[in-house]
Design brief:
Oligomer: single chain
Structural class: mainly alpha
Helix content: over 70%
Largest sheet: 2 strands, antiparallel
Keywords: Membrane, Transmembrane, Transmembrane helix
Shape: elongated
Strand content: under 5%
């Protein structure tokens, strides 16, 4: 499976490389800006500069050209798929099926997920960071390196993503069904609160808000970003939408009727699949499940919902939405397949109980028959 994912992802690296030859791409700017840096440490800061800092030694010391850098970062994005795959496999008991097809296999080969994580840019780096991080959080005591490295990549590219995952980790750990001593749960909560306080001001400033007047600056910046993104082409007026419609737009658009181009039409098929998968949790048993779900499921749900809501306030361009949501859709898909996994486990338990009850009744009937004959 991982060999197939590797070659599939490298193919999308070639597709994106060809796309960048004919269309405007940030990867070209990253490459040329990196060549202009004279000191490696001058580029070390969160955001765009970090992409150039990461590329600096390869370009300026080892002489990598643009094509080589594109495939190097494509390879880095591949590691995100490796660790998400492992995360899925070790947290599920069965392989859930969609109409007879293995769900995890479908998830690992979604084209949009590969396209936006196969180039020199933030997409490949943040996706790899999230993959390392969630894999590490599945077994924190033995995967400190994965947690540290994943947290580093997430913070340096998009601090708010790390912020949301830390909060989700705290909530999931406290409310998860795992039997963990209370002192450990409270330690995790205090750690999450402490980290939130520590990164709060830097995060607010990074996002362009005023720490002393957060609400007003958030509204102003959101309106500014919304107008800027809407005027960039493929715009949607999300400012007039209700919250459910904003979330629907972020998660499932473009659809076939509003696809801006051929790429949008191709992505519409994937969005239709997302709608189908999401419909699986619209079930009366889902609320029952989420109350008793493991920590990783609750963490994924919190991360997905919190980031989705925050992004709907600043996203008004379908092109940007398509690119940004690829970072978090695996969290939703994991919640869906975990719920399906629980449903299958529950059905097997019920069948086992019915079978045991039948066997017990047959045993009692035999004993009664023997006693009567005796």
């Amino acid at each position: 499976m991982l060999n197939q994912i590797f070659w599939y992802h490298m193919f999308f690296g070639l597709v994106y490389w060809a796309y960048a030859q004919l269309n405007r791409s940030d990867s070209v700017n990253y490459f040329h800006h990196t060549k202009d840096w004279r000191n490696w440490f001058d580029a070390f800061s969160a955001g765009t500069d970090f992409v150039e800092w990461l590329a600096f030694p390869w370009i300026n010391w080892f002489g990598f050209n643009y094509d080589m850098m594109m495939f190097l970062t494509t390879w880095l994005g591949f590691w995100g798929f490796v660790y998400f795959y492992l995360f899925f496999k070790e947290n599920l008991r069965f392989n859930p099926k969609f109409e007879g097809w293995d769900a995890i296999t479908i998830f690992m080969f979604l084209p949009n997920m590969h396209f936006w994580t196969a180039s020199l840019g933030k997409g490949a780096i943040i996706f790899a960071g999230i993959g390392f991080l969630v894999y590490g959080l599945s077994w924190p005591a033995k995967r400190i390196f994965h947690i540290a490295f994943g947290s580093f990549l997430c913070y340096m590219v998009r601090p708010h993503i790390l912020f949301a995952i830390l909060i989700g980790m705290g909530v999931g750990f406290v409310l998860g069904r795992e039997k963990v001593p209370f002192y450990q749960k409270y330690l995790v909560v205090f750690f999450a609160i402490g980290m939130s306080i520590f990164v709060y001001e830097d995060l607010v400033v990074y996002l362009g808000y005023d720490p002393n007047n957060l609400v007003d600056s958030f509204e102003e910046e959101s309106a500014l970003n919304s107008g800027r993104l809407q005027s960039a082409g493929s715009g949607v007026d999300m400012g007039s939408y209700s919250m459910p419609m904003k979330l629907f737009t972020f998660w499932f658009r473009p659809l076939f009727i509003d696809s801006p181009n051929l790429l949008g039409i191709a992505i519409s098929f994937e969005n239709a699949l997302y709608i189908y998968m999401f419909s699986k949790v619209i079930h009366k048993d889902f609320l029952t499940y989420i109350k008793i779900a493991p920590a990783m499921v609750k963490m994924s749900a919190v991360v997905f919902i919190s980031i989705s809501i925050s992004m709907t306030f600043v996203m008004s361009n379908l092109g940007i939405i398509i690119r940004q949501k690829s970072q978090i859709m695996y969290f939703m898909l994991f919640v869906v397949v975990a719920f399906m996994d629980w449903q299958k486990t529950t059905r097997i338990k019920k069948r086992g109980e019915i079978f045991n009850r039948i066997v017990e009744e047959e045993r009692k009937n035999r004993e009664e028959a023997e006693s009567i004959s005796t």
